[in-house]
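Severity: low
Component: inverse-folding endpoint
Summary: output formatting inconsistent between runs
Steps to reproduce: submit the following structure tokens with default settings.
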């Protein structure tokens, strides 16, 4: 008998997204699946037409492109849109290769179907060396990762991967393949060589005969053409849309209020009830008993459920459900975790680091002999840094509308992982995945919060138990206190400087390594002797990916320590970093541009100072300078400058928007982000005590981009975040001489 709780099952499912999980899935796939199974981008149009092109006036050319009789091209996008602009940019990449008329391009969210797994996201995470494979081996790699992706429910939006994987290797390929199919169909009809047909603005042109036709005229015939899995893609000098700032396709509907988010969506023409729920305040506990006598008599209450791992009220309105929930007296089982407070958590971490000592723990990276270099160093510096637990706090509340009837289940929810949600629902409800439909509209932010399925499973279980279609909404308090979190972390450093001030020894031991593995390694810096180790320690709260994942902690740790090394060496922090990356022209170029843009060498007004940090994450180098005013005794951020090298930027405005958002998110966490534990439960509950950075506190932000041409290209959604906190704390040190090694900042200046 499987006695795993839904949350434990979900965390187990999430493990599939680790490198080990993917490799394990690959073993299950078997050698016979290596031979060209699955195509990139695929063309099972018979299966998909009823889902994505049901109208008589539209033709599915391949899995990712449909064309209607008005010559409207629709890009079918597998990633979710949660404010990052992925839908628009992915369509832009497809449309460029297709030579489509951008004014007549629409975007459609792909349905929850295994045909829309993001194969190349799996490849990027697990085996990046297979990207840009030669044509002869490409079908093999693609076939393998198609199978792995299906096993891992790899229809996912996260890891700053949408543009650099699906966009680069699936949407562009889909556009180029569709264009070739359209040209082939026209060539057959006109009796001319395909090489003589040009394409422009969704039009096929044969100049020699003067013939031309819209894509719509040949869409049906094109769908019958063979599809090239590895069509020739454009070179940068041929781009018409890629590299240009095109307006986002989702903005008009979001401005006029017609856009549908998860919380807006529901079954059409069906009356549904509302559900409010309460989960255990301490992880690992369950309902011991409950007294619902007061709630049962309240207006609008339809049913009260003890689901074992949560209590739910179903009512005519959400307000009635929430009010009744507050009148239920729930007793929870005793927690087994010895960690009851924030102090307990960090004490456990400290013990783990003490036990690891100078050489213990699991090796994360090693080069040279760090211990010997420390012993012979002219100067030895030491530092310890702390990062707290953090919540995701997306603005759209966690929600799911569920209907379970006649052995079938439909859910409407904001999710980053629709196929994973479908599998989790199948496990929880005992319903075949073929009888489950996950409708996933726009997300009102996520930042990793909606990479799990617990909230959807809870809603569906309530719907199944009551027989009512229900819209389940989590209160802000419930989501702040009983969700998944960025882990708290403790990190200790020792550094050895030679007589010239160069950092020649680097020793770091820390707790809680998750993903990506390279986040904890100072890989951009030329340090001859390094030892990076992780000490395993208990983690009280369940964790999940949080915007930039481990880079959010280690960016702060590493860049703070490098700044301390620069100070110990008596060097300018910018000069010190430039010397340490002198062997990497990309990093040097980024810092040089940042120095110029931020006017680094020009002193500011009295009481002000600048701090710098540089982090490479998700394939993108981002260096930032924060300008802070400490004249009032408290930090006031004046300006933030960022220079980025992602290889090549598809949509400059969209890219800059994401970097700006990452900076604001990072500065919010740096200034205010913290979750405290008391009696094993989270103290903070809403935005009054889990604060967001207000607009009048936000610095002016300027972003510059360097297109170095490096492939594969980098991401945008997360790389702006990791340098923000250390750039700010380094600026505070430059202004005050006070080194901050513990976050958040604001409470240290009350």
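Observed output (run 2 of 3):
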């Amino acid at each position: 008998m499987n006695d795993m709780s839904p949350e434990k099952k979900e965390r187990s499912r999430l493990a599939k997204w680790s490198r080990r999980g993917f490799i394990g899935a690959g073993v299950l796939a078997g050698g016979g699946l290596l031979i060209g199974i699955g195509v990139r981008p695929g063309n099972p149009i018979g299966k998909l037409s009823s889902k994505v092109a049901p109208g008589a006036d539209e033709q599915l050319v391949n899995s990712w492109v449909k064309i209607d009789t008005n010559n409207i091209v629709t890009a079918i996008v597998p990633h979710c849109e949660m404010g990052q602009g992925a839908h628009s940019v992915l369509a832009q990449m497809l449309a460029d290769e297709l030579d489509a008329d951008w004014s007549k391009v629409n975007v459609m969210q792909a349905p929850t179907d295994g045909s829309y797994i993001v194969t190349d996201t799996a490849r990027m995470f697990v085996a990046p060396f297979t990207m840009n494979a030669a044509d002869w081996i490409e079908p093999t790699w693609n076939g393998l990762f198609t199978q792995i992706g299906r096993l891992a429910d790899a229809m996912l939006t996260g890891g700053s991967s949408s543009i650099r994987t699906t966009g680069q290797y699936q949407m562009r390929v889909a556009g180029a393949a569709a264009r070739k199919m359209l040209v082939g169909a026209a060539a057959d009809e006109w009796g001319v060589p395909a090489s003589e047909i040009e394409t422009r603005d969704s039009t096929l042109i044969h100049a020699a005969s003067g013939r031309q036709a819209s894509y719509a005229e040949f869409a049906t015939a094109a769908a019958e053409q063979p599809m090239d899995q590895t069509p020739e893609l454009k070179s940068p000098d041929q781009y018409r849309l890629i590299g240009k700032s095109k307006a986002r396709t989702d903005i008009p509907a979001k401005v006029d209020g017609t856009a549908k988010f998860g919380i807006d969506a529901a079954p059409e023409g069906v009356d549904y009830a509302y559900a409010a729920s309460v989960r255990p305040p301490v992880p690992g506990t369950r309902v011991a008993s409950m007294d619902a006598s007061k709630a049962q008599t309240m207006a609008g209450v339809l049913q009260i459920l003890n689901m074992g791992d949560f209590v739910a009220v179903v009512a005519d309105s959400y307000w009635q459900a929430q009010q009744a929930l507050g009148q239920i007296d729930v007793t929870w089982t005793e927690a087994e975790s010895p960690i009851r407070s924030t102090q307990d958590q960090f004490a456990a971490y400290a013990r783990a680091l003490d036990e690891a000592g100078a050489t213990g723990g699991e090796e994360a990276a090693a080069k040279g002999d760090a211990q010997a270099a420390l012993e012979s160093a002219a100067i030895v510096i030491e530092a310890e840094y702390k990062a707290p637990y953090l919540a995701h706090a997306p603005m759209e509340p966690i929600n799911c509308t569920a209907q379970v009837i006649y052995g079938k289940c439909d859910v409407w929810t904001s999710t980053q992982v629709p196929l994973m949600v479908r599998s989790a629902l199948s496990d929880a409800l005992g319903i075949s995945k073929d009888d489950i439909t996950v409708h996933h509209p726009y997300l009102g932010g996520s930042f990793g919060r909606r990479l799990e399925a617990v909230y959807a499973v809870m809603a569906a279980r309530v719907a199944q138990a009551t027989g009512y279609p229900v819209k389940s909404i989590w209160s802000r308090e419930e989501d702040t206190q009983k969700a998944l979190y960025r882990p708290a972390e403790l990190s200790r450093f020792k550094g050895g400087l030679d007589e010239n001030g160069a950092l020649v020894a680097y020793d770091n031991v820390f707790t809680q390594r998750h993903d990506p593995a390279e986040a904890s390694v100072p890989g951009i810096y030329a340090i001859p002797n390094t030892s990076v180790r992780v000490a395993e320690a208990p983690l009280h709260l369940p964790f999940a990916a949080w915007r930039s994942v481990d880079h959010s902690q280690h960016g702060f740790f590493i860049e703070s320590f490098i700044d301390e090394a620069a100070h110990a060496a008596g060097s300018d922090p910018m000069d010190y970093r430039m010397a340490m990356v002198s062997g990497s022209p990309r990093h040097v170029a980024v810092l040089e541009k940042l120095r110029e843009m931020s006017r680094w060498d020009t002193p500011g007004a009295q009481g002000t100072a600048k701090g710098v940090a540089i982090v490479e994450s998700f394939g993108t180098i981002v260096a930032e300078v924060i300008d802070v005013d400490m004249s009032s005794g408290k930090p006031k951020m004046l300006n933030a400058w960022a220079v980025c090298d992602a290889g090549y930027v598809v949509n400059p405005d969209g890219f800059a928007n994401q970097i700006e958002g990452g900076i604001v998110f990072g500065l919010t966490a740096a200034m205010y982000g913290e979750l405290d534990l008391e009696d094993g439960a989270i103290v903070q509950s809403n935005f009054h005590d889990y604060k967001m950075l207000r607009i009048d506190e936000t610095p002016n932000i300027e972003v510059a981009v360097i297109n170095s041409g490096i492939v594969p290209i980098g991401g945008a959604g997360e790389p702006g975040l990791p340098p923000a906190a250390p750039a700010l704390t380094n600026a505070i040190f430059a202004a005050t001489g006070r080194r901050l090694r513990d976050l958040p900042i604001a409470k240290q200046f009350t």
